[in-house]
Amino acid sequence: MAETQDMSDANLRAAQMVKSGEGQTAAIDRGQGIWECRGVGNSYLVTTPDGDVLVNAGTLADARRNRALFAQVSGHPIRRIVLTQSHANQYGGLEVFKTPHNEVIAHRLYPGERQVGEMLSAHYRRGSRRIFGGITGPAQDMVPTAEVAPDRLIGDDGLAFTLGGAASN
């Protein structure tokens, strides 16, 4: 008799991390005005009296949910959005958070990485949908419907700024 193999993602650590935001109804307080929303790509809101800083926008579906969760902890506008990588789980939700009044900041290599990513997207999406589709959800929840270019590109030394008395490093 053939043994039945468990093909669920219930015991996969990566799947548990990706799905850790499912059912999240409030942003997680990480202290000192820093709030976290979990998802395929985690997002962080740093709150200040003069406006907030969003670190990574998450996927499109994450961002739609996270905007409401972050609104529960801050009524201030998002002044800056910092992208740490050029992966869809960091930039996919930019269109949800981008306004004419905030600034998207990314590394100087971001535009080129996005261009290469788009050239290879059919290959990447075919493979990653097959491998991760059951964990991350439908492709239309991952990828943006509109491209949002960074307003400022920074070099390898990074960018330090102060907003509302809070300094970035």
Give a structural overview.
With 169 residues, the protein is of the alpha/beta class. The protein has one domain (27-155): Ribonuclease Z/Hydroxyacylglutathione hydrolase-like (Metallo-beta-lactamase, Chain A), CATH 3.60.15.10. 31% of the residues lie in helices and 20% in strands. The protein has six helices and nine strands; from the N terminus they run H-E-E-E-E-H-E-H-H-E-H-H-E-E-E. It has helices at residues 13-18, 60-71, 88-91, 94-97, 110-119, 121-136; strands at residues 28-31, 34-37, 43-46, 52-55, 78-82, 103-107, 152-154, 162-163, 166-167. The strands form two sheets. A seven-stranded mixed beta sheet has the order 1-2-3-4-5-6-7. A two-stranded antiparallel ribbon has the order 8-9. A hairpin with a 5-residue loop joins strand 3 and strand 4. The longest helix has 16 residues, at 121-136. The relative contact order is 0.16. The mean pLDDT is 86.
Going by CATH, the architecture would be: 4-Layer Sandwich
Order of helices and strands: HEEEEHEHHEHHEEE
Q: Detail the poorly predicted runs.
A: none
CATH topology: Metallo-beta-lactamase, Chain A
Shape: globular
By CATH reckoning, the class would read: Alpha Beta
Short description:
With 169 residues, this protein is an alpha/beta fold. It has helices at 13-18, 60-71, 88-91, 94-97, 110-119, 121-136, and strands at 28-31, 34-37, 43-46, 52-55, 78-82, 103-107, 152-154, 162-163, 166-167.
Which key features would you list for this structure?
single chain, seven-stranded mixed sheet, Metallo-beta-lactamase, Chain A, 169 residues, 31% helix, alpha/beta
